[in-house]
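Researcher: Re-running this chain for the archive, since the previous output was lost when a drive failed. Same request as before.
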Amino acid sequence: MKVQNISDVNAFFKMIDECKGTVELVSDEGDRINLKSKLSQYLSMATLFSNGYIEKLDLVAHEKEDIERIIKFMYQGE
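Model: Regenerated structure tokens:
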């Protein structure tokens, strides 16, 4: 799933933390990084999101309710 234009990175990671299953960031090389890991979140924030804004991400969520949660966040910011 592609997500775009995330201006509130803290709210994004809070929403990821509330997901029930694994949510992974897929890199351009095809590597998968578990975003529910706090270490991965800190490393991601330091490297990919250093400007405080996420232009686009490719995510894989393994639970249907998590996919719905991510979509709701993208459209409603919740």
